[in-house]
Amino acid sequence: MRLGRNIPLAWKNLTEHKLRLLASVAGVAFATTLMFMENGFRKSILDSMVNIIERIDGQVVLVSRTLYTLSVPFPFPMERVVQARGVEGVASASPLYTVTRSSFWRNPETGREERICVVGYDPADDLLDVPELKEDRELWSRPDTAMADDLSRPAQFGEFRAGQVSELAGKRFEVVGTFALGINVQTNGNLVVSDRNMMTAFPELDGPSLMDRKVQVGVIRTAPDADPRRVRDALAEALPPDVRALTLDEFIARERDFWDKVAPIGTVFYIGVVMGFIVGSVICYQVLYSDISDRLPEFATLKAIGYSNLALYRVVLTQALYLALLGYAAGLIVSHFLFQWVNRMTGLPMDVPRNNPGVILLLTVLMCLGSGAYAARKLISADPAQLFA
Amino acid sequence: MTSAMLTTTLNRAVNKPAGADVVIRAVGVNYAYGAGETRTQVLFDNHLEISRGEVVIMTGPSGSGKSTLLTLIGALRSMQEGYLEVLHKNLSKAGEGARVDIRKEIGFIFQQHNLFSSLSALENVRMATALKPASVDEMTGRCVDMLTRLGLGERIHHLPSELSGGQKQRVAIARALVNAPSLILADEPTASLDANSSQVVLDLLRELADGPSRTTVLLVTHDQRVIDKADRIVNMVGGKIVTNSLTKVAVRIVRALAATEGLVGLGEATLSRLANYMTVEDFSAGDEIVRQGDEGDRFYIVGSGVADAYKDGQFDEEKCFGESFGMISSYFKIPIPETVKARTDMEVYVLDKDDFLRALADDQSFEGRIRSLLAGAAPGAQPAATP
Predict the structure, then answer these.
(1) Longest Cα–Cα distance in chain A
(2) Could you report the predicted ipTM of this complex, rounded to two decimals?
(3) How many CB pairs under 8 A join A and B?
């Protein structure tokens, strides 16, 4: 066995006792997994809350000035959409209706009515960028038909399939096809219907005239060369102040911000990430402190023969880094399988790539290095003079 | 204060440095633990000079301060009072960085091996070579050579848990010696070694001291086998160096004292203590060493060579190895009783008045012997065999 220039003391110390190594790595992996899961929940919930908005096929939207989240109905009159069509840079303006709180679908298997999110628009407008909805446009244009979200929770709705007949808001509806969109913490399922069927199911959205219909989102497609921000500004100037014009990205950001900071789902899970970090720090500190304590005479000997405190710090920090990387790798694998399981159980969009693996790696490394630096203070107390006592 | 001004005032032959190149020079070194009411002084005004290439043994009872002095010399503690120069570097006001640097020049051997259980014997020794970096092959080669010299050539890849206590200690010794340090500080290095291993280690230490590197070795030990290899023995009691003897000279003086008629029967410890007070003087053939009738203040004991004693101008007797002459007139109240001239070149061991009085105060056996000699002699007459 040929030795290198430097003796890998940190690695040798870490891996000397296999069971102890296993326990140490498991501890760090636990903290890493905790951070992954908390961050994953936060991210997936925020993602799910903007799931529909992200699929809107438009560059600018109109919403009520009082709207703070799409989940709460704050409609504005259809007249604003019509007015928007006359603004420069607007290629088209279409109404999108949503009902999230007062819409119920009867589960044909159990007979129970379950709350469901219903989105309505003119099928010809293709307002949602969902392939199945575009392909089956003719089918769900027919009266009393709906497209159902395959990713809706089966526990509430059973399994949606074409030809299934049941009731939406007490009216007979037939499922003519399915699509894949995904659910969120506000709703366990989604239906998409035509604007006509929307008015049939929810007449309260209709008004004395077309101009009085209660629109939740006005979807603006801009002219090919138009800058969405300029169109937004032009709309804000042209339309009365009861509506607000936003670029699609701004709309997404506002919605995420609401759930992240105001609701505050994001803050709760942030605290979870912090807790994971603290738990990991404590575990890592205990592991390294215990190892340093066990080897204090050896470290004192190194100090005696001329190693500086800095050199010994480096050994402990390297050991902490190795622990971080091993713990992260183990945590990554565990999190991957947990994400799959949670996704299957809840339908929440969870997987490793979308949950900032780089950030979690950075947090894990910082967690271990911080603990290592704190534990390494013990080295200062390693008095080489005591070796002659 | 320059180092030249700080030469110790010790002037007995046995106390003089063996060579000109002094690598450890301690002057008036004091040290205390704690502060305020809990302050406990453990070193008191210690003076010591050790030359390059010397093998020095430090002895003394537990708590005598030898470990504290060793840690000061090893730059493991910062100095409080006094002057300390090690390897020509002033440690009196050295900061942590300077002390770390000088420790790289020192090989430390502790009672406990303190090997990393995670590293093989070779890797443990390589940890030391990292402080004197060279090519990988050169560093590994040095380690393998040292381990092989210490009889561990077949076990270089073994972990400490696979080695016996003695083998582990030899690995620790290899770690201390692998960088060819200028100074070796060792605390009971042979305590856990069998006779053969001890001999190998001691031979190696002696070889380093005598070799081209002229390494200085300072050992705390109670191992009598080490004495044969030592140049000097430093004995500490109560935080102070009480004796500091060049062992070869001391052995010669003790042998001469043991052969002296008036001291026959005194224990080895008493004779050693007495030897520490004596100086060595050389005389050429024909030199008159003492003259009859003069007021004397020294006793002489013949170490080598032959002298002739004359009384009233007539040849009286021959003075050979172990025979004494001279007189401390102020104590015994008589002048020098005979004239003594060197017949050949001579080495003579000398005890002057002050040291004679100190020796009396220090050693009850010696004092008792002198009192009995005085009691057996007529007032105003020369004691029968003094000393």
Answers:
(1) 99
(2) 0.72
(3) 85
Q: What's the Cα-to-Cα distance from B184 to each of B54, B112, B180, B196, rounded to whole Å?
A: 10, 16, 9, 21
Q: What is the rounded CA–CA span in Å between residue A302 and residue A7?
A: 13
Per-residue pLDDT tens for B190-242?
877 788 888 888 888 888 888 888 899 999 887 767 777 788 888 888 899 87
Contact between A190 and A152 (Cβ < 8 Å): yes
User: Length of chain A in residues, anyone?
Assistant: 389
The beta-carbon neighbor of B103 closest among A5, A300, A304 is A304
At a CB cut-off of 8 Å and minimum separation 6, what does A110 contact?
A: A158
Q: Cβ(B112)–Cβ(B139) under 8 Å?
A: no
Annotate B210-227 with b (16+ C-beta within 10 A) or e (fewer).
eeeebbbbbbbbebeebe
C-alpha–C-alpha distance, residues B356 and B322, integer Å: 17
Within A181-306, where are the H helices? 195-201, 228-238, 248-257, 265-294, 296-305
Say if A135 is an interface residue toward chain B (CB within 8 Å). Answer: no
Backbone phi, psi, residue B325, to 5°: -160, 180
What SS3 state is found at A136?
coil
Quote the strand ranges of chain B, DSSP E: 22-33, 40-51, 55-59, 81-86, 89-90, 106-109, 183-187, 216-220, 232-237, 240-246, 279-283, 288-290, 297-304, 307-311, 314-319, 324-328, 339-342, 346-352
Picking from A1, A3, A301, the nearest residue to B110 by CB comes out as A301
Q: Comparing C-alpha atoms, which of B274, B236, B263, B119 is closest to residue A8?
A: B119
Quick check: A310 contacting B, CB < 8 Å? no
Report residue B324 as tokens. 């004494």
d(CA A276, CA A289): 20
- Structure tokens belonging to residue B215: 């390494």
Would you call A302 an interface residue with chain B, using a CB distance cutoff of 8 Å? yes
Eight-state DSSP code of residue B296: P
Residues of B in contact with A304 (CB under 8 A): 74, 76, 103, 108, 110
Task: Say if the Cβ atoms of A304 and B108 lie within 8 Å.
Answer: yes
Between A1, A7, A15, which is nearest B130 by CB?
A7
Q: Which two tokens stand for residue B6?
A: 């700080």
pLDDT tens, residue by residue, A263-311: 777 888 889 899 999 999 999 999 999 999 999 999 999 999 999 889 9
The secondary structure of residue A56, as a DSSP letter, is B
State how far the Cα of B61 lies from the Cα of B19, in Å rounded to an integer: 28
CB-CB contact of B53 with B19 (8 Å): yes
Spans of all domains in chain A:
2-49+264-388, 55-247
